[in-house]
Structures are given as structure tokens and as C-alpha cells.
Amino acid sequence: QELRPKSLDIKQEELGDMVEKEMASTSEAIEDAVRRIEEMMSQARNESSGVKLEVNERILNSCTALMKAIRLLVTTSTNLQKEIVESGRGAATTQEFYAKNSRWTEGLISASKAVGWGATQLVESADRVVLHTGKYEELIVCSHEIAASTAQLVAASKVKAEKSSRNLARLQECSRNVNEMAANVVASTKSGQEQIEEKDTMDFSGMSLIKLKKEEMETQVKVLELEKRLEGERVRLGELRKQHYVLAGGCEDTAEDGEARPAPAPRRGILKKPPIAQKP
Q: Is pTM, for the whole model, over 0.70?
């Protein structure tokens, strides 16, 4: 112990303190996320109606369910960590146990940070979607990130836990629940996006005859532009395939000087019969 670097001891002590601080910070971030979602829900009910209100409520409800699942996950993970420390530290203190297992401790801190950051990003993305200033794809990506960070936290906790631990079984069940809730967020986001886009593009009620005629002409122009662009892309695709075939043939037939040359095209003619084999 006397030969251990003093600076390393201080760093490890701080590392042990950071575990509890990060878990507490993650819990606070999730509580704040739940509170913000509830505020967004009330705001959406006051400022939107019809299909938009239905979509916003469905997305925010799925986000609320995901946050509750994450909160239970963090609580269960904290209980499992306390169990691991109590069963493994022996006569050492909690800080000494974390310091002794510094690699494992760093993994817990990283996973906890990832979960808290993912929850915060999910709420911000949901806020932008409800206000129609963000993209639905951001919400989907955030859901995937939360599922990944949850798996990271479970893996970090599972390393030191006993296989027969009840807290470990609860943590794994919480992880599956988080994944299910994240999938629900993705599903509600995709279906809501389809509903909103379909309503925005196909709602012609309230348009005058002149407005409808103008929209019809503009749509015809877009159709012609897209058809022209599609034809150009098809030509481009054909040229790319030709060049691909040339390069692929050149790789099979290489000149003596090391330069690749295209393989000769097969001659189209009448196939000759193969010579009859002579008897020995």
C-alpha cells in the first residue's frame, strides 16, 4: 500500500464517489424528463386538435411509458450494485471496492451517463416533434440509443453479479421492458408520421376552385420534373453498370505490362462441334 502512487489513490477515491453521483444524476434526469413530457402533453392538448392531437398524445404516452421503464431500470441497477459491493468488498470500504475494481466502475459510470443522456435527448426530440420543428427520425434514433445504453448498463452490472441474484433477474426483466417500450415509441412515431404526412398532403377541404386548379398545375409540373429526373438516374445507372462490367472484366484479364484491359466479348456465331477424342 505504501508503494502505491498517491495520485492514483486520490483518483480512485474520486472514481468511487462518482458512481453514486452518476446514478443519482441519471435518476434526476429521468424525473425531469417525465415532468417535461407531462408539460408537453398539456401544451399539446391546448394548442392542437384532431389528427395532430391524436398523434402527439400517442407519441408522448409512449415516451412516458419508456421513461417509467428506465426509472425502474435505474432503481433496480442501483440495488444490484449495492448487493455486489456488499458481497464482494469483505472488510474493505465501499470506496475501496470501487477503487479495486476501477475498470468495472468506469463501465458503470459510462453506462449510467449514456442512459441519462439518451433520456434527455429523447425528451428534446419529442418536444421538437410536437412543436413541428423537429424530425420524426430523431425520435426513432433516440429510442435506439436508449435501448443500446440500457444493454450496456445491464452488461456492466452482470459482470460482478451472482447468477442466482434476484436483483439481476429483475434488472434483466427491466431491460426487456425498456426495449419493448422503446419499440413502442418507434412504432407510434412511424405511424404518427404517416398520418400527419397523409393529412397534410391530401387535405383539400376549404380550397377554392382557383386554388385547386393552381395546385393541380403545380403538381403536374412536379410530376414532369420527377419523371425527367428518374429517366436521368436510369441512364446514369446504366452507365455505372457498363463501367462496372468493364472494370470487372479487366480484373480477370491483365496485360503483361501490369495494366488491366477489358475482357473480349464472346463472339456470336455458330458453335462448332468439339473434336472427337482419338482412341489411345
A: no
